[in-house]
Design goal:
By secondary structure, the protein is α+β, with helices and mostly antiparallel strands. It is built from nine helices and eight strands. The longest helix is centred in the first third of the chain and has 17 residues. The C terminus is likely disordered.
Length: 289
């Protein structure tokens, strides 16, 4: 299953339950998969797990010492394992980390985000204005999610050219793009280093947890991108985990014109053939040897 398949399955699951109050109560999801949730103090870095009894009942256990938003995400993540029938593979890798995580875990994170921030409900509640620190924080609080989760959701569903980038230990791990950027062939290479000219690089270099918004050039982030236009970058660094996130956006009229190939990657213009002027270029001053 690719990301599109996972999102479609998640939205189909949400459509079968009453998700109108899901921001306050996840029980409709829990009931739909014949599960029960219990809280228990687990080991450091262990967010939760699920087991299935012989009678088919699922028991989802979440770490009681973690934040409410983290517990909500864990419940939805474990529901994803049940619905998608994917085996857990935590393998001592922190749940917040994309590095070396099993594809099953990343797939369940994608599914969980769809459950926590349902597509139609999100679109009906998100303010019709450009992104800002206050707007993302408002949506995170409204849906009981983390700031990075809300920022990623905003980028994915935005009408404007917008992207959300997750970075760990100075390297890009994941980038979510809005439809406008995907159609334009905007691409941020995974495992690439954080651009030196970016806000993300600047605040990470300070070594402190920090949030900052500033304008930077579009082409420092996107591969094979035209120079000349700027974008806004809202970046936040988490020093304890050496994780950095950036929300990137700009106006639709600032999208560069150009072609993309069948893989959705921008085709760099090499100038092509020179325009015909009616004048013969030969003979010239130089000759090919």
């Amino acid at each position: 299953m690719d990301e599109v398949d996972i999102r479609q399955k998640a939205r189909a699951f949400v459509a079968k339950v009453d998700a109108s109050n899901i921001r306050e109560d996840l029980s409709p999801y829990v009931t739909a998969v014949n599960a029960k949730v219990k809280q228990e103090e687990l080991g450091k870095g262990e967010s939760g797990y699920s087991v299935t009894k012989p009678n088919g009942k699922h028991i989802i256990t979440v770490n009681s010492v973690e934040t409410d938003e983290r517990q909500r995400f864990t419940i939805c993540h474990e529901i994803a394992h049940i619905v998608l029938n994917l085996v857990s593979s935590h393998e001592e890798v922190p749940s917040w980390s994309y590095a070396k995580r099993h594809p099953n875990e990343i797939a369940c994170d994608t599914f969980a985000a769809e459950l926590l921030m349902p597509y139609q409900l999100w679109l009906s509640l998100v303010p019709k204005e450009g992104p800002s620190l206050e707007l993302i924080q408002h949506m995170a609080e409204l849906f009981g999610t983390s700031f990075p989760a809300a920022a990623s959701r905003f980028a994915s569903l935005s009408d404007i050219p917008c992207a959300f980038v997750t970075m760990e230990r100075g390297a890009v791990r994941y980038a979510a793009r809005s439809m406008a950027l995907r159609q334009a062939g905007a691409w941020i290479s995974p495992r690439s280093t954080i651009p030196v000219e970016s806000v993300a690089h600047r605040i990470r270099s300070s070594g402190n947890s920090f949030t900052e918004t500033d304008e930077v050039s579009q082409d420092i982030w996107f591969d094979n991108w035209e120079k000349g236009d700027d974008l806004w970058e809202l970046s936040r660094h988490y020093a304890r985990t050496d994780t950095t996130i950036s929300l990137l956006w700009f106006d639709s009229e600032d999208l560069p014109e150009g072609e993309v190939n069948r893989f959705g990657t921008r085709i760099k213009d090499d100038g092509g053939l020179a325009e015909l002027t009616g004048e013969l270029p030969w003979p010239g001053r130089s000759r090919r040897r």
